Amino acid sequence: MNQESPRRSAAWFGRKGKDGFIYRAWMKKMGLPSHAFDGRPVIGICNTWSELTPCNSHFRELAEHVKRGVYEAGGFPVEFPVMSLGETLMKPTAMLFRNLASMDVEESIRANPLDGVVLLCGCDKTTPSLVMGAASVNLPTIVVSGGPMLTGRHRGKSISTSDVWRMSEANRAGQLDDMELTLAEAGMCRSDGHCAVMGTASTMACMVEALGLSLPGNAAIPAPDAARKVLAHHSGSAIVRMVEEDRKVSDILTREAFENAIMVNAAVGGSTNFVLHLLAIAGRVGIDLNLEDMDTFSAKVPLLANLQPSGTYFMEDLYYAGGLPVVMKELLPLLHKDVITVNGKTISENYDQEVCFNRDIIAPLDKPFNTLSGVVVLKGNLCEQGAVIKPSAASAALMRHTGKAVVFEDIDHMKQRIDDPDLDVDETSVLVLKNVGPKGYPGMPEVGNMGMPAKLLAKGVTDMVRISDGRMSGTGFGTVVLHVSPEAADGGTLGIVQDGDLISLDVYERKLHLHLSDEEIAQRKAQRAPAPVHATRGYVQLYQNHVEQAHLGADLDFLKGCSGSTVTRDSH
Ligand code: FES
Ligand code: MG
Q1: CATH top class, domain 376-532
Q2: Which of 118, 335, 350, 456 is the most exposed place for a label (fewest CB within 10 A)?
């Protein structure tokens, strides 16, 4: 045993006497030989496997491939579970628990004898929660994403998450029977993996690759493809080298890396949820990133990936066209090329030899699919700290629009009122939904692209300006203003809007304005009842008392920053 080992794990496994005995003896019950404790890098595999997170249900097998790579490079892998956030089953929204899961990840890594960590991430929130937690410990860390599902197939057609909404509406209208819907259910999610479009899970997989936190190619390899297992194997070897070379999260997550991630997100047409998660991650590593940066750096970048919901194709197609590496190569003239990634190479070293195999799917920088991309940040008296809109998902005719507010005080009020035939609403109205923000719901659910009034749908209206303090699914679309900050439940002006008030949206001028005098706004705010308290105990109470507003990333205020990896005291 190497008592001189400088490794972190030596403070457990390198010890003599009672403590070392305890630290090693129970590990040996798993069949580990003494040389496993000789000072070689101990690699944690942080696993979000769960049958309640179907997108991550293949992660036990994926972890085995990471282990092969760790052993091959001379490391010692140990797999451990953390809280897994499944997007489809968790109520009221998985977002409520992102910060809780990040605490589990942070403390699990710090408390244990680990020298480096591989994060197995897939479904939407599993990526930011793991990266946030790991960043607050700052060990050498590599992300392995689970990969997207194969494209869904139903009656000879490609289908995906976005068709859930279309098919269920057709079923309600009697155009699609129940049996047909059941058949579609079985064809939509027909393989391992996360959602097959550029929704939030794929957005997060692109984000970690763009940040340099994964090996090249991580973003798009489909979950069932053998190449995904090979990537996991290589990542296992790479983390051992990363430990040996002492490259930490903070060496990767520089200000330049964050700027690169914003540019890549714009080029792939990523989800608006990217904004919240990237801001929260930046907060953990102490990088001064703000909401305006999301606009500044995406404004330079056109849309290069033709993927749903901004375009036509699926993640599987992106992989066959060359994957995110080709997008990165096209963007090299705009990116910070010299930032280092987990494998010790720079962005340009990793990507400058990539070749595109299908220009219908990945466009060159000089012939983009759309000059509109990314996220526009709005300011005005209706969103003093900002709001966001995804222009590529909005209607051109509504980007500059003034209309009368139709106000829903909360989600229940909206459900009860939206299809009322007597509702005073037309296609020029602006729908306002309050109390779906971080504190107000609580947890900031994906309801911002609220359904439109039935009587307008019947007239053939397909889009209206919609404003809320909530989020929208990465697969959603429409002229939808999201993440209004401060939210209604935190004293924001959104909370005092009334039916009939005039609201102006101007995406070109980046403005969101409520046509009321400052005096009128102040007067209404003074008369407003305090926001309801949703929980008097437990995590939800903690969350309500400490969650920050959307423009800061909606992390808990006391989780900002990094506590490092040092633990000085023993357990016995
Ligand atoms: Fe898990 Fe879409 S539901 S990624
Ligand atoms: Mg989602």
Answers
A1: alpha beta
A2: 456
